[in-house]
Design goal:
The protein has eight helices and seven strands, in the order αβαβαβαβαβαβαβα. It has 269 residues and is an alpha/beta fold. The chain has one domain: Spore Coat Polysaccharide Biosynthesis Protein SpsA, Chain A. A seven-stranded mixed β-sheet has the order 3-2-1-4-6-5-7, sandwiched between helices. Helix 2 links the parallel strand 1 and strand 2. It starts with 16 loop residues before the first helix and ends with a helix. 43% of the residues are buried.
Length: 269
């Protein structure tokens, strides 16, 4: 069995007790399983009602999943997220307190190294992002044509029907493309994949609005970015945990600016 404490040297952030305990419990349950090529990480906080929709989409990629594992990274959920995940056949890595999507994904990244995975795929738990085409997002990594691949609703299709959010996606894509010099069309994609080795080159401190920090950090670390078309569906149940459009926009803007300033002026490479 691998020891989760050994992952610390692979990151520019320090593992903590919550993460270590959760990873240790996962390894006790799954440590004897074959080393996966990739982990599909599903960060989830009270998403029991939406996880069956994610499972239905992943069913379309069951042949691709033969070389990987699905792990729901549970962020201190108070509903039936864990039992539903297990019932769907997913592995679970359970943080006992709610800290935010960014924090629980960092736990997932540590788990990926602990089990020896080469790639990480991130799929949101709200059922909006379509992971049916796992091969399309993994193959550019396998073929060494990219280090970081993400689905883009702008290149594909959005069925959400939120014109304010669609406008924000376009604006932030232009802003991040301008400040980083790398053209992107979707900066808050809930469907991403990257080589685990990239984790040693980027800094992750944002506990909630992690998508822009991850993307900007990867770009500034010199990662080759590739976008593929994807579909964004309406959320089957519930609402976003990140607030209304206005508050989301303000908080997202702060993370974009803060990450860029940190990576551009404060980080020595």
């Amino acid at each position: 069995m691998r020891v989760p404490q050994t992952v610390a040297a692979e990151f520019n952030f320090a593992p903590n007790t919550v993460d270590k305990n959760a990873i240790d419990l996962y390894l006790q349950e799954h440590g004897s399983e074959p080393v996966p090529e990739f982990l599909v990480l599903i960060p989830a906080f009270n998403e029991a009602k939406n996880l069956p929709a994610v499972a239905g989409l992943l069913e379309n990629a069951k042949e691709e999943l033969l070389s990987g594992r699905i792990v729901v990274c549970i962020d201190g959920a108070t509903d039936e997220t864990e039992s539903v995940s297990r019932g769907l056949g997913f592995g679970v890595c359970v943080a006992n307190i709610n800290r935010g999507q960014g924090a629980v994904l960092k736990m997932g990244y540590q788990l990926a190294i602990a089990v020896g995975a080469k790639y990480v795929v991130i799929v949101d738990a709200d059922g909006q992002w379509d992971p049916s085409d796992l091969g399309a997002i993994l193959n550019p990594l396998r073929q060494q044509r990219a280090d970081f691949v993400q689905g883009s609703r702008e290149l594909g299709e959005t069925r959400v029907g939120d014109s304010f959010r669609d406008f924000g996606v376009m604006v932030f894509a232009k802003v991040i493309s301008l400040i980083t010099g790398v053209r992107v069309t979707d900066t808050s994609s809930g469907y991403r994949a990257f080589d685990v080795s990239l984790l040693s080159k980027i800094r992750l401190g944002e506990p909630q609005f992690q998508s822009s920090e991850l993307l900007i950090g990867a770009i500034m670390a010199g990662a080759r970015i590739l976008e593929i078309p994807t579909i964004m569906h309406k959320r089957p149940s519930g609402k976003s945990k990140k607030g209304n459009n206005f508050s989301y926009g303000i908080n997202y803007s702060k993370v974009v600016l803060g990450t860029w300033l940190r990576e551009r002026y404060l980080v020595k490479r």
